[in-house]
Amino acid sequence: MTILDALPIGAGVVLAGLIGLVLGSFIATLVLRWPAGRSVLGRSQCDGCGRQLGALDLVPLLSAIASRGRCRECGGAIDRFHGRVELGSALLGVAALAIMPGTAGWLWALFGWLLLPLALLDARHFWLPDGLSALLGVAGLLVAGPLLQTTLVDRWIGAVVCGLTLAAIAALYRKLRLKDGMGGGDPKLVAAIGAWLGWQALPLMLLLASLGGIVFAVLGKRKGDRPLGEQPIPFGLFACTAAWVAVPLWPVLIAR
């Protein structure tokens, strides 16, 4: 038994929520700054007047609520994206520890926190940075065993086989259709996810991700004039969502 297993369920849920709020603040900053070429590690500033923000301005959720969503200096509106990401990140931690207490729950929360920036960057910019996918993959190989009781070999197989399979599918599509049907970051992301789930749960993850992409494309077709096959789909968003959801679903499915 580890110290994580010894924590009372309520304490674990609260602690995971608080950690999620703090991480969510950083994730929101990363998603907003990195694509714009701005430093992720620099001091936080008001987007309106450039004033450097102090500690009281940076308390996740509470600072924005206290200031009514506006800069105290210039009155400019604070991007609501910050609060939404902070809340979402906190909910990932709360849900993980409420559903799966102990070490597995903390690993599930960590998995979600690593997936979140990738999902948001793909949803907003169709971009899956190799550095974030590499971090996700390395973390999975190092620590993810207790999450679904997988061996290191299982996770290596999941990473290599699934990554190569998606890369082969992308190459075949490009050869037959003479255009890209999948971004270059998608196979790397799925390989990194395989390093967490192992090869056994990957078919479930890919099925859920594909269903999400199909629904997105169909809904997009109703709103626009593009043919169904030409709808741009942020597959990384659906792969990240499906990967996180597959963690509690997979043990239930194999138990039947």
TrEMBL record:
Catalytic activity field: Typically cleaves a -Gly-|-Phe- bond to release an N-terminal, basic peptide of 5-8 residues from type IV prepilin, and then N-methylates the new N-terminal amino group, the methyl donor being S-adenosyl-L-methionine
Q: Which Gene3D superfamilies match?
A: 1.20.120.1220
Topology in the lipid bilayer? Multi-pass membrane protein
Domain called Prepilin type IV endopeptidase peptidase: residue spans:
110-218
Indicate the transmembrane segments per the record.
Answer: 6-32, 90-114, 126-144, 156-173, 193-220, 232-253
Q: Which family does it belong to?
A: Belongs to the peptidase A24 family.
Q: What does this protein do?
A: Plays an essential role in type IV pili and type II pseudopili formation by proteolytically removing the leader sequence from substrate proteins and subsequently monomethylating the alpha-amino group of the newly exposed N-terminal phenylalanine.
Protein name (Swiss-Prot/TrEMBL) = Prepilin leader peptidase/N-methyltransferase
- UniProt organism field: Sphingopyxis soli
